[in-house]
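User: Predict the structure for this protein chain, please.
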Amino acid sequence: MQVQGYFDLKFEALKDAFAALFEDGQTRGAALCVQVGGETVVDLWAGLAGREDGEAWQSDTIANLFSCTKPFATVAALQLVEEGKLDLDAPVARLWPEFAAAGKERITLRQLLCHQAGLPAIRAPLAAEMLYDWRVMTEALAAEAPWWSPRDGGHGYAPITFGWLIGELLRRADGREPGHSIAARVARPLGLDFHVGLDDAEFHRVAHISRNKGNPGDAAAQRLVRVTMSEPETLSSRAFTNPPSILNSSNKPEWRRMHQPAANGHGNARSLAGFYAGLLDGRLLPDELLDEMTREHSCGEDRTLLTPTRFGLGCMLDQPALANATFALGPRAFGHPGAGGSCGFADPERELAFGFVTNSLGPYILMDPRAQKLARLAGECLG
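Assistant: Here is the predicted structure, written as structure tokens:
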């Protein structure tokens, strides 16, 4: 497979490892970008972007980044905290009165951001088309009772409800749609090719998403799939299948267009690395808010994912001892994987910002081994 782009010769082994991904016939397309100290040392792409053979991945190809989107939304919210328009520890209901229903009057933005609020899913079955109706989804969440008491300190990852919860607060505090807020506050100031709520004119650049077959994944992935398939009433099942269109909509125009800042951001590896470089050099948040974002808020068994997770505010923190939950570099690394393999993160100790994007989805629920191998090798090349 011919790899295109740029790499510093110090990172030639990383380029070779990236090329080796395509020895697996199921890897269709991917891109990799690494910045160190704000300088791009690797910017590579290869493979196929389209559904049909012959539609090559280009320099400007973008892809659905799934949950890599969450930190972008979080940074927009934290900027509003800095401006006094949001408050991490004030009740959400102060800005969103309807949210106080069903015992949620004391839930805070901080609890939403670190997945402690007890709102990773909606109990009542929803029609597939409701996924695209912002009013229906936010009203359902405003009426929902928490799945556990937020006061007990437990946490459960909110794979998609995070987007409506944080997005509604962005909308109310910033006076514009969540994707427009993220674009104005995060993407445009850094010149990032990143979008939440994609314009139809950009659709021709979007990579077609496909799923790899034949790999059951690790034990954590297999456990979650088993519960989701066999126990439809559980929290885990509801989080991923209600509405039932969550898992099979990523190539649909309606999905690309909607403002869902938990899961439907579209961008490239360059935009992920650039975002984390912007956090490391202070262009997005002051030090005190970055420290708040990246300190441990939640740690332990995740009630949604059924595996140990560790979160700051809107970002995943490293768990070096767990194979499925480490970014494979320094213990202070922070960022977020996206469903199927894409990943963006920063390692402050090395001043390294990393972005990996693929349209060939693997089965892992946290870190994909492809991204981990590349990240580990980036650290080794850096020395």
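The two ends are 28 Å apart (CA to CA).
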